[in-house]
Design a protein that fits this description.
The complex is a heterotrimer of chains A (about 300), B (about 350) and C (about 290). Chain A has about 300 residues and is mainly alpha-helical. Chain A contains twelve helices and no strands. In chain B, helix 8 packs antiparallel against helix 9 (about 165-180) and helix 9 packs antiparallel against helix 10. Classes of the chains: A mainly alpha (about 300), B mainly alpha (about 350), C alpha/beta (about 290).
Amino acid sequence: MSADKVKSVKEDFVVPHKLFSLSRVWAIALNTFTQLVRMKVFYFMLIFSVLIIGANFLFLNFTFEQELKILKDVSFGAMTLFASIFSIVGTALLIPKDIEDRTLYTILTKPVPRFEYLVGKLIGIILLVAVSLVLMSFLFFAVLYFRQHAILAEEIKMIRGGATDAQKEYLKETIFAQGVSPELILGVLAVFLKAAVAAGVALVVSTFASSTLFTIIVSLVVYFIGHAQSLALEYYFPDGQMYGALQTFIAGIVAVVFPNLQMFNIFDGIITGQSISTTLMLRLIGLTGFYLTIYSMISWILFAKKEL
Amino acid sequence: MLKEQGFRDWAPSMSAREQLTQASFVGSIGGFRSLIASIYDLRAHQAFLDKDWASVEKFRGITTSLQPRFAKHWDLAAWDLAWNAYAYYRNKSEWTEDGIESWQMKNIMMPRYLEKGLEFAKQGAEWVPESYRLAMVVADIYSQKYNDPELASQWYFKSSQAGDAPPFVFRAYATHLARCEGKEEEAYEVTSLLYRSTRSSNRSLTLTVRRDMERLEDHIALIAANTMSLEQLESAALKNGSTYLDFAKLGMHLLEVKKDLKAALAVYRDIANDKNAPFFYGRKLLMLLARNPANEEQAYAALKKLLKRSPELFRRQDLIEFTKLETSLGASNDNRKK
Amino acid sequence: MMAEEIIPAVQINNLTKIFPVPFRKEKVIAVNDLSLCVEAGEVYGLIGPNGSGKSTTMKVLLGLISATSGSSAVFGLSSSETASRGSVGFLPENPYFYKYLTGAETLSFYGKLCGLSRRKIKERTSELLSLVDLENAKDRRLGGYSKGMLQRIGLAQALVGDPRLVVLDEPTAGVDPAGSRKIRDLIIELKQRGISVILSSHLLEQVQEVCDRVGIIFEGKLVKEGKLEELIEIESQTEIILEHAEPKILDQINELVQASEETRVLRSGKPKTTLERLFLKETGAESEDVRKDS
């Protein structure tokens, strides 16, 4: 190779370094997502399908409210479970593994700031949770839609001497009120937001944890305490008022360490027919954004100076 | 803040917490509350199939404390105890040969489960006031199990005020009110309101409302007939703005107090011609006409036509009388032929 | 361009790295006041036994860990800056990549991290795959790669951003002689392209053929540094290797030596081939010359 050629090739590849590059973050996120997909995590869809289709045929002599409720409960329970497991175990599995296998060396010795690596991993896992929730929702809504129509047909048939139009309308209204509704989509969104916060927790833990198992256990503990957090705060501050700066500070620390995950369980409200206000949804989204920002920052602080 | 939104409706009460196992408690706060409630729902159903009423009561208690805002849980709890458990012990008490056991079932078990069921329904009505369902269940229990039309009518009324209440709840309210002694005036107001509203729309009247209407009008007319003088009644009937009911009171007085069939017939004829009067006054008039042997045949023919066209106007006692009339006419015809 | 020539590829000054031992007062000094400089275009070998501080030095150079004291820079940019990684390619010891990615996907992933355009990544990927001889395996997942193949895809990964400095940590460790020969050939090719290379090895022999300069590191200190020939040549000795030597000539040489006052024969006999050469000959693996021709 001549010297001229070497020079020209070099100049072609001189890329000015960016302090923060979305394309690098996206590359890491997509790589994380691909990795998880190829680990065949989507086989869980089989389990999910069996669960919710099974929930359909188990209890046939129930009232339609019970039948539809069980279907929704099983689906939402499974969604919450899968989404939380994916977010916690996925994060706990991938980051410590990168460190253990020294794959991280090859990434961080490219011009990739450590912050981008963390954010990329987080986005990748959240992406996986989002895609799996979309898949589950499709199946769930399809089954629910099919079921509500089947139940309606059944109920109409049970009316002796044929149902009048008014009766049909009434049945349709009462049965479909328990069926597919926009509220359910909001419920799924809340499940997603909760899983995203859980992934954030696992991200923080995995930056100082030395093993996958430790990360999973600590994250799960935080996850469960996060659900009881509001109860505990209510116990210590019964009328919801903080007295003095110290208590407010302590409560703030508790709220950061143990995110209030109970807030995301709006499915209970949905199943009892409460309408979900836009303000509540926006508040949950804002809260998720807040937690993810805080957690990314904390993990960055912990990770920036980590000796690898 | 979520309390305002109605989402923090639940902090597990101690008793519920004690009943729940550790695992399900953690799960219930971990986003699986609804699922766990469903599982206990299934367990309760299994206990129902096994006729294990103590467990049914326990599991229904758990489902309702896990999801107190879900009406169906309360509904099923009340149903399982006040109907299923109650009926189970009633049947068993009738079949058992052990006298003491039978007595125990009748006097301890049955009232106990009835009370428990009623309690569930009442609590549910408090938790889910926006649904007609649970207040109706309370009313049903008072009506069907305690035979207390007064309390039943109160709860039916409460239920009928919920936004989602179907029309039959208000009818049940009217019906039960009509059975409360000493509340006839109030009951008449409600029933006539119902009668008129359903008559003006094309919907068919239920037989109960027709019967209650007639019974209440008769009742009111009879009281007036017995307490007021003829002059008072006449002036009331002739006053401007009087209704057919004032005439009915007068007619009743003439018929029952004065025993003046002719004068009464004149009054009832006026009523039957009043467009506002219920149709059963036409039947009443014909029945009175039939009392006079001279008009017997004519009245019979008219009644027969009416019966064919609108049989719903005839009460049981009317049908009996009609049959009597038919047989006496048949007998006299036979005599004439002979 | 002229200024660039003056800036050394690697400049490490008085580097010290101390690792604290958890729950104990004593500390481990991994690197002790080490200074070294790699000129642009130079191949530098860092040799020393396991645990002597080679890897630690490289990690500091690459910003994976921070120095306790002293400084380290790549083409004038401090190692603590992410931007300094823009001109470096690194192959860790026994590299392990995402085994769910194929060879081509791996290179494209690292290309994206280097901020290359999509077109460039495509070009670069196929170029490097042929360079490291993995074109046939490019659509296979890394899970199915042999150790040698992983080492080569690792090398390609290090080169994807077209670095001006390549850092290789034990590049031939655990690789069979044929693979190790290939890697050596690649290093020579890099050198021909004007790319600086710093490599570490605990096997002295492997370094010999490719390094311009070597540094010997022991217990965290650079104990000797210099051009390879200078370091290993023994001033007082001279070697003569003859082919088809006739006994008569050998006798004459011996006579001449005995006549001299100072010269002595230390050893004579048939030179031995290295085990590595023997292995390559017997297994019929491509030799250096065959490769160069092709």
